[in-house]
Amino acid sequence: MQDRARATRKVLLESAAHLFVERGYAGTSVNDISDHSGKTSGAIYFHYSSKEKLALAVAREQFATWPQLAAPYAAPGIPPLEKLVVLSFGVARSLSEDVVARAGARLWAERRGIEAAVPTPFDGWALAVTRLLAQARTQGELAADVKPSAAAVPLVCAFFGLCTLTDDLPGGLGWGEQFDQWWLLTLKSLQAKPDAAGLLARARARIPVRP
């Protein structure tokens, strides 16, 4: 793909993402995206044959960031449960601060109103969590009554729900504080030797500080 075409696609994706976050899928038209991006409707249809295709591209772009978030923590020296917590904060930060990620999450929530199959985050995330929990079991970190495959899906669903509801929860806490509280409760059930505050502190220390 030529640089100019790649740049145009990026502008269209980001403009569509902003509008999907603000107005939802049904409340956003191709003309709205054209006005926001400064590109003609013809240019939009040249790159994406329909609004549905553009929405799918936004959703896929969100999931494409997962390997980038996971890569820095692939080293074997990081304990699996600590790695799980650090990765969760990375994904939560992305869903909170990255407009494309936020749009992807909203599009998934509105998937029944979209005439296309919106990719789900749960299969890939549940598989990754299952692997980390299985590694934690092998290393003696995991509580004896926790089954990795059975625990992974509820963990991922609770995580995704907290991410998408943080702005509407009472108390006025930011997403970081909400996740601190959630992990303090959750780790007590996951750890073979509960030390939720200690593990959370170690995981927090590994999270890159944003400039």
TrEMBL record:
Signal peptide range: none
GO molecular function: DNA-binding transcription factor activity; transcription cis-regulatory region binding
Annotation: DNA-binding region: 29-48
Keywords of this entry: DNA-binding, Transcription, Transcription regulation
Span of domain HTH tetR-type: 6-66
InterPro entries: ArpA-like (IPR047923), CprB_TetR_C (IPR054126), Homeodomain-like_sf (IPR009057), HTH-type_TetR-like_transc_reg (IPR050109), HTH_TetR (IPR001647), Tet_transcr_reg_TetR-rel_C_sf (IPR036271)
Domain of life, per lineage: Bacteria
Pfam families per record: TetR_C_45, TetR_N
UniProt keyword annotation of DNA-binding present: yes
Coiled coil spans: none
PANTHER family (alphabetical): HTH-TYPE TRANSCRIPTIONAL REGULATOR BETI, HTH-TYPE TRANSCRIPTIONAL REGULATOR RUTR
This protein's name: TetR/AcrR family transcriptional regulator
